[in-house]
Specification:
202 residues; mainly alpha; 0% strand
Length: 202
């Protein structure tokens, strides 16, 4: 809810225009990211990191996901099935086998870190990192501009109608969706709260 004790420094028309600018920026950022992703996806499979991207552009979400795969699909089953069997047959060799599993696990962790680091370098070389960062920054700017419209204290019913009309008609399906689709309930609730607060204070 907006702070009704603070003076407003921008008009509703200015805030709407600011939001339109951020929408245009977001559309351009989405288009640019899509173009870079298309180029990246068609790049020669120079190594396993690019091949991995070919499988799914969103498969790599961090070290924890990949480490979990090592633990759950590789080391874990070996430790659960093989190691317990060896322990019953040859306790001394079991100790060596456990050490081998731990060494292998740590080496795989190291390989993951190295691969991700090089993968990020490849992304940067293609301009994909910059395009992703601009997409995030543009989305944040669009959300903040829309929130500024919601926080605006309307001076009269005409402004209330203008603001609500603009919010209901603002682009929300532009390739990469703007913030209105997800924030609609919060936006309308904020408007109602602001209106009630302003009238109570009058």
């Amino acid at each position: 809810m907006a702070d009704i004790t603070q003076p407003q420094t921008a008009t509703l028309a200015q805030l709407i225009e600011d939001h339109r600018v951020t929408v245009e920026r977001l559309e351009m950022a989405c288009d640019a990211l899509e173009q870079v992703e298309a180029v990246f996806a068609k790049a020669p499979a120079r190594d396993c990191r690019v091949q991995l991207y070919h499988v799914s552009a969103h498969a790599i979400e961090g070290r924890m996901w990949l480490r979990s795969f090592v633990d759950d699909e590789l080391i874990g089953p070996a430790r659960k099935r093989v190691s317990k069997f060896i322990e019953k047959m040859d306790p001394e060799f079991h100790t060596q086998f456990e050490a081998f599993l731990t060494t292998t696990q740590n080496q795989l962790y190291s390989d993951i870190d190295d691969a991700l680091e090089k993968f990020e370098t490849i992304k940067a070389d293609f301009g994909l990192t910059a395009a992703e960062n601009e997409r995030v920054a543009a989305d944040d700017a669009e959300s903040e501009a829309l929130n500024a419209i919601c926080r605006y204290r309307c001076a009269n019913h005409d402004e209330e109608r203008e603001r609500l009309r603009y919010i209901l008609e603002c682009p929300s399906a532009m390739g990469c969706a703007g913030s209105f689709g997800e924030l609609a309930p919060l936006i309308l609730n904020s408007i109602l709260q602001d209106n009630f607060a302003a009238r109570d204070a009058a």
